[in-house]
Amino acid sequence: MSDIEKIRKERKRWEDEELAPRLKKFNLEKPVTSFSTPADLPEHDFLGKVGFPGEYPFTAGNASVEFWKANGRIAALFGFRPDWGGTRGVGKYGGFGTAEDYRDYLIRMHSMGRTGGPNMAFDLATQCGYDSDSEEAAGEVGRVGVAIDSFRDFAVIYEPYTGKIDIDKQPSNFTINAPCVVILAMYYVLAKKRGIDPKLLHGTPQNDILKEFIARGTYIYPPRQSLRLFKDSLVFMRANMPKFNVNSIGGYHIREAGATRIQDLAFSFANAAAYLSAGVDAGLDINDFAPMFTYNAFGGSMEIYQEIAFHRASRRMYARLLKETFGAVNPKAMIIRQPVSAHIGCSSTTLQRPLNNWIRAVVGGVAAGMTGAIPAAFPPWDEPLGLGHSQEATQMQFDATRILMYETGLTDVQDPWAGSYFMESLTDRIEAEALAEMARIDGMGGAVAAIESGYMQRAVAKSAYEKQKRVEAQEDLVVGVNCFNGPLEQDVRINTAVEPTYDPARMATAEERQVAKLKALKRGRDNKAVASLLNTLKDHAKDEGKNLMPDICDCVENDCTLQEICDVMREVFGVYSPVKL
Amino acid sequence: MSEDRKIRVLIAKPGLDGHERGARIIAYGLRDAGFEVIYTGLRQTPAEIARAAVQEDVDLVGLSILSGAHLSLTRKVLDRLSEMNASDIPVIVGGVVPPEDAETLASMGVAGVFTAGTPVSAVADFIRAQIAKKTD
Fold first, then answer.
1. Closest partner residue to A140 among B67, B96, B121, by Cβ?
2. At B114, which CATH number?
3. I need a labelling partner for A339 at 20 to 30 A (CA). Which of A238, A369, A533, A538 fits?
């Protein structure tokens, strides 16, 4: 009898003699816990499935020594704060009001030594391709980010970035998708005007339009035409801005919209495959451009074991996708570059007794540490209050992360779960289920087709509703929400007294000031040139073989507005109309 | 209102905010609770929402707003409804709404404000009570 058979036989005996009587005693229909044995992992191939950190298939981690681990001690001694940015780093994600308002905020940050590059949030009008004077923009201007109508706005933000922090030295992040081509063109033109070689520019645009149809919702054109714009941006960046990351693919948004873990993995990778194919179809070398793809963290949950297995599975799946499906040979093309890994996801936070979110975030930080990433205790506890993170909550977030990093030894071991019967079999199971879902999407014709038919959108909406039903039925328990919410529980609060990040007075007048600026721009520019450039863009948009980036750069340089450029493409490409759910 | 007519609710997303999870859950949940639900989808203008409410002859309008623009957008929807002589249609708001803004919304005439963690069943009960009050 083999060892595995022996264990199976012993397990049967244990279930009958030990487990069954206990279940009977407690009147349980099935076990409330699980226990794994080597029989759950009968043919585990360590080298094939796990391997060494920094080597294919990267299950055990992206690198044998991570940058942040190598520099962890120095960071502690110098008191490094990630929200301040630093040399070749961006500052905290933000943006509000007009370009002048955001510029002044950045100047204030710089005066405090916080010289990270701009990590830009754009207002919803900009994200959806509308100018501040449009009907659609009313009430939205400068609210969830900075308003950008033209190159002149964009250039204002960069006024304080000169000398030691000029744009050839500091990176920029742009959280923009549908009009990403316009913002990239603005950055390219800015470099040209400053006499800086665009080849030196670095940074990251979100540029992940496909997930906007599944979650987040800032789409403009139909999926197919959107992917064409992605391709144009990719080809342009590889030729002209080779140090600039191509995109930041977000499984995070999809899970926050309600997707299950399996849907999150399958849909994100199906989207990634569509972007990778676009590059290959355009004649680019996968080994050259795939290393410039980045990920903006997959989604998260409070289920710590599941999240650890999820990240192990994701690394292996991606490496295999690149190697086996796309034929990559460069190991750099096979790794998921992401700033954070496991975390709880903002949707795990509760408005009820919000300070408890600090504890929740720490659980996510522990999971992150065990997947080989910075044990980031994200998000700050006041996330669900919707007021922007307070300085106090941000401090508590960083300190929780630091305590995990420096006091617990959490990150001293690489892939501490490797070889665990339980974790390895869970990793295999998640991978198998996600691969099956990806195959299903492939069968539909890939991500674009699965979005066009509404398959992905419906699947996510349904999962969100199933989750809600489980919470309402008290199948899933959430402390303070559907249990332990009686009158004897105490609602613990702390004072948050530090000044808010943004000036509310400026926010209130942003729309008026922005519209006035736009009026002046339209009066003062060469409107003949504008009309002619937009016409050329329109002609070229009809020809799929034409890369539109050079035309968009010309438009931007000659003061065409963001909406004017987007409107021309709306005319040619049409606009996306969402499927009925 | 006749006995057999289902309560008709319009769930709407005004403005450009794309956070749709809450609106979808409410739409599905109210449908399962026996309501007739019309969901507008994203990016509706206040005028479009008011027009849909009148045309569809709904008993109540639910606005879902997570962009922080809830005060101005709700004000506009109420104004458009009033211009169409439809101020009698109660409006409720769901989303990320700080407590002081919930008070402001109430003073504008919003019937109820629902934030994160509210069960759909509580929203359904609230709507039934509102409609009962109206028909009394």
1. B67
2. 3.40.50.280
3. A238
Using CA atoms, how far apart are residues A474 and A554, in angstroms rounded to an integer? 58
Q: B117 and A125: CB-CB below 8 Å?
A: no
Q: How confident is the model at residue A188 (pLDDT cuts 50, 70, 90)?
A: very high
Query: Residues A190-199: what's their mean pLDDT?
Result: 98
Q: Is the pTM of this model over 0.90?
A: yes
* Alpha-carbon distances, residue B96 vs A159, A299, A388, A510, B113 (angstroms): 34, 20, 11, 22, 10
Q: Which two tokens stand for residue B35?
A: 């309501």
pLDDT tens digits along A253-310: 999 999 999 999 999 999 999 999 999 999 999 999 999 999 998 989 999 999 999 9
Interface test with A, best of B20, B63, B93 (most A CBs within 10 A): B20
- Looking at residue A514, what is its pLDDT? 98
CB A302 within 8 A of CB A348: yes
Chain A partners of B18 at a C-beta cutoff of 8 Å? 124, 212, 215-218
Q: Where are the domains of chain A?
A: 3-40, 89-205+513-581
Give the structural domain span for B64.
8-135
What residue in A sits closest to B17 (Cα-Cα)?
A124
The answer, yes or no, to whether residue A102 has pLDDT greater than 60, is: yes
Residues 35-64 of B with CB under 8 A from A: 39, 41-43, 45
Q: Do A125 and B16 touch (CB under 8 A)?
A: yes
In a domain, B3, yes or no: no
All residues at 6 or more sequence positions from A157 whose CB lies less than 8 Å from its CB, including other chains: A99, A102, A103, A106, A118, A120, A146
Domain count, chain B: 1
Task: With beta carbons under 8 A apart, name residues in chain A contacting B42.
Answer: 217, 578
Q: In whole angstroms, what is the distance from residue A101 CA to residue A230 CA?
A: 30
Its ipTM equals 0.93
Say if CB A438 and CB A270 are below 8 A apart. yes
Whether B98 sits inside 8 A of A386 (CB atoms) is yes
pLDDT band at A509 (very low <50, low <70, confident <90, very high): very high
Judge contact between B8 and B18, C-beta under 8 A.
Answer: no
Kindly state whether residue B1 falls inside one of the protein's structural domains. Answer: no
B118 touches A at CB < 8 Å: no
**Is residue B39 in some structural domain?**
yes
In the prediction, which pLDDT does B106 show?
A: 97
Closest CA to A182 of A131, A118, A251: A131
Report the C-alpha gap between A191 and A184 in whole angstroms.
Answer: 11
**In this predicted model, what pLDDT tens digit does every residue of A167-186 receive, in sequence order?**
999 999 999 999 999 999 99
Evaluate whether residue B91 is within a structural domain: yes
Q: Which chain A residues touch B if contact means CB-CB below 8 Å?
A: 124-125, 127-128, 130, 135-140, 143-144, 212, 215-218, 256-258, 347, 350-352, 384-387, 461, 464-465, 468-469, 471-472, 478, 481-482, 578, 580-581
pLDDT of residue A211: 98
